[in-house]
Design goal:
Layout: H1 16-25, H2 34-47, E1 53-56, H3 59-69, E2 77-81, H4 90-94, E3 98-102, H5 113-127, E4 133-137, H6 146-156, E5 160-163, E6 171-172, E7 175-176, E8 183-187, E9 200-203, H7 207-217, H8 240-249, H9 253-271, E10 277-279, E11 287-288, E12 294-298, H10 307-319, H11 340-351, E13 357-358, E14 374-375, H12 379-386, E15 387-390, H13 398-411
Parallel strand pairs: 2-3, 2-4, 3-14, 4-5, 5-8
Antiparallel strand pairs: 1-9, 6-7, 6-11, 8-9, 10-12, 12-15, 13-15
Helix pairs in contact: 1-8, 2-8, 5-6, 9-13, 10-11
The chain binds pyridoxal-5'-phosphate.
Pyridoxal-5'-phosphate binds next to helix 3.
């Protein structure tokens, strides 16, 4: 191992192998079996709301099947939080629907309930039709403003799908994210709070919905010897091996979550006092983020070493001039980029062996989605311009965090 500090590495607990060995010995090397059922039971218990959970091959698959469960199809509109990772929006396109992006509010960085209300009214006025569903996200683990959002959704009678891929173990008023809306999505990708090497789950409202989800996840085949199909199906179940990793990870889930929360508190204590740096915090005591990633906003007033070079390189790569073969040169450049002080900080930290990343670029500014309707208030773009994700995984120790903190301080002019 070198001494680089990475953003978020997965970590095995030592409890995984027995489940995998058992699977091998029983010849359960297939996308069903005792680990799949066992992992689902573990998740149901962890979430604590008596809701059936279906384990799947990815969080993206869970979003796709959640939209199908809500009956979303061709010609429908789906409202999606713009400030998110692309996997929240791509499945809207898989089912042939139109995503309508809605901006965030500044406390949680998640969908703005007032703008959501406005957007729904405006869509109805413009298209004569209600949006079919709403996708809310718990960004970097921060619970969305459920109370306010569900009130708006209830007023218009539109079901909500909750993308809690980053919020495993986060709580709102003591209740786990993923259990507040009609469907909830979890992810166990390699970089998420716990991992199955790749996997996800759909939290369903009832057994009927869970059965329907399993049906679509296993090629939509009806129980004839020759298989009969009346629907288009998918191959989205999780493998019994992956689920075995998940069962092992459940032993340490609470420990990992506590570690991530500790990391955020530590950054807050040692960086929160630096003028111009704001560590993202729970807005009030309803919120209890898992702080999957600790994030910070860097004020425009902060000057960073090497900023002029970062600015110059951004310019050359936009105009495609000499020296444009940078990390970014193949990107489609737009006028929406992180601020140069943030970019200089990222590059400066990378030179010191510390990996950081800008916040998610809002979906309404992504070339692939920019042609779809968007309701904006400037919050998501402002966050993208000023934000940075700090190393946060189970491998990041207090000593590592000290190095991150001191390196950041050393790069500020
Ligand atoms: C990771 C992630 C997903 C997708 O999960 P996968 O398991 O990687 O498919 C969806 N939404 C958000 C916000 C994510 O961060």
């Amino acid at each position: 191992m070198d001494d680089r500090i990475l953003l978020r590495m997965c970590r095995m607990s030592g409890h995984e192998m027995p489940f995998i060995t058992e699977a091998f010995e029983g010849e359960w090397v297939v996308p069903l079996g005792p680990n799949v059922t066992g992992f689902e039971k573990d998740l149901e218990k962890f979430l604590g709301e008596n809701l059936p959970v279906v384990a799947l091959s990815s969080g993206t698959a869970a979003l796709h099947l959640g939209l199908i469960g809500l009956g979303v199809g061709e010609g429908d509109e789906v409202i999606v939080q713009s400030m998110t990772f692309s996997a929240s929006v791509n499945p809207v396109r898989y089912v042939g629907a139109t995503p309508v992006m809605v901006d965030s509010e500044a406390d949680t960085w998640n969908i703005d309930p007032e703008l959501l209300d406005y957007a729904i009214a405006d869509r109805i006025e413009k298209t004569g039709k209600k949006p079919k569903a709403i996708v809310v996200v718990c960004l970097y683990g921060m619970p969305a403003k459920y109370e306010e959002i569900l009130k708006v959704a209830g007023k218009w009678d539109i079901p909500v799908l909750e993308d809690a891929a980053e919020a495993f173990g986060s709580e709102y008023e003591g209740r786990k994210c993923g259990t507040f809306c009609k469907y909830g999505v979890l992810s166990f990708n390699g970089n998420k709070m716990i991992t199955t090497s790749g996997g996800g789950a759909l939290v369903c409202p009832d057994m009927e919905a869970a059965k329907k989800t399993m049906y679509y996840a296993t090629q939509a085949r009806l129980g004839y010897a020759y298989y009969q199909h009346v629907d288009v199906g998918y191959n989205y179940r999780i493998s019994n091996i992956s689920a075995g990793i998940g069962r092992g990870q459940m032993y340490v889930a609470d420990e990992y979550i506590a570690h991530h929360r500790h990391r955020q508190e530590y950054y807050l204590k040692h960086l929160g006092c630096v003028e111009g740096i704001t560590i993202h915090c729970n807005p009030d005591n309803r919120f209890n983020s898992n702080f999957w990633l600790s994030t910070a906003l860097i004020d425009d007033s902060i000057r960073i070493k090497g900023e002029e070079e970062a600015y110059a390189s951004a310019i050359t790569s936009i105009v495609g001039g000499a020296g444009a073969v940078t990390e970014q040169s193949s990107d489609v450049h737009t006028d929406c980029e992180p601020n140069t002080n943030v970019e200089a900080l990222r590059l400066g930290l990378a030179k010191l062996g510390i990996e950081t990343r800008p916040l998610w670029k809002p979906m309404h500014r992504q070339p692939v989605f920019s042609k779809f309707p968007a309701y904006t208030n400037g919050v998501a773009e402002d966050l993208f311009h000023r934000g940075i994700c700090l190393p946060s995984g189970p491998y990041v120790t207090d000593r590592d965090a000290d190095r991150v903190i001191n390196s950041i301080k050393s790069l500020i002019l």
